[in-house]
Amino acid sequence: MLRNALGKTFRFLGYTVQYGCIAHCAFEYLGGIVVCSGPSMEPTIQNSDIVFSENLSRHFYCIRKGDIVIVKSPNDPKSNICKRVIGLEGDKVCTSNPSDFLKSHSYVPKGHVWLEGDNLRNSTDSRCYGPVPYGLIRGRICFKIWPLNDFGFLRASPNGHRFLDD
Questions:
Q1: Which of 2, 15, 54, 134 stands 20 to 30 A from 110 (CA)?
Q2: Coiled coil: which residue ranges (predicted)?
Q3: Which one from 53, 57, 83, 123 is the annotated catalytic residue?
Q4: Active-site residue, selected from the candidate residues 40, 53, 57, 123
Q5: Which residues in 121-153 are b (16+ Cβ under 10 Å) and which e?
Q6: Is 40 noted as a catalytic residue in this protein?
């Protein structure tokens, strides 16, 4: 009887470890559901919106300008942030705030991206902490799940004029 109980316990633990590994791989490499908080991506993503983030793009280096990404915060590695990619390595970006009279520009260094929130007046982004290493990108947001009346693919950036093509 003890042998039978131990056998069932070890089988249960084996299945738990196997399914745990499968779940980990799915969330690490395929994607997952993310609840966004904060005003930095308004009006595209509101506080408490639920989105789907896919992770394959970051592994295959398919992140493009205009994509909205989930990134490990450069200021706090325990938290994630949601921002739009404004520039990729080698791109010229406007590093000043929209309200600044004199505009300053810089180039994104190799292996980095330039991130900004859609709500430029209320966003802590690359204008504050500089270019972000590509390795901090966790995933790319594909579409919004909640609220249902806003279900679907995300809108284009309201700040498209900040994308420079020089």
A1: 54
A2: none
A3: 83
A4: 40
A5: eebebbbeeebbebebbbbbbbebbeeeeeeee
A6: yes
Three-class HEC string of 115-142: EECCCHHHCCCHHHHCCEEHHHEEEEEE
Closest CA to 145 of 153, 156, 133, 137: 153
Q: Which tokens in the block code for residue 96? A: 């000043």
Q: Is the Cα torsion angle 38, 43, 45, 49 positive or negative in sign?
A: positive
pLDDT at 166: 47
The per-residue pLDDT for range 137-160, each reduced to its tens digit, is: 999 998 898 887 888 777 777 676
CATH number for the domain spanning 91: value is 2.10.109.10
The two structure tokens encoding residue 62? 């398919």
In a domain, 17, yes or no: no
* Number of domains into which the chain is organized: 1
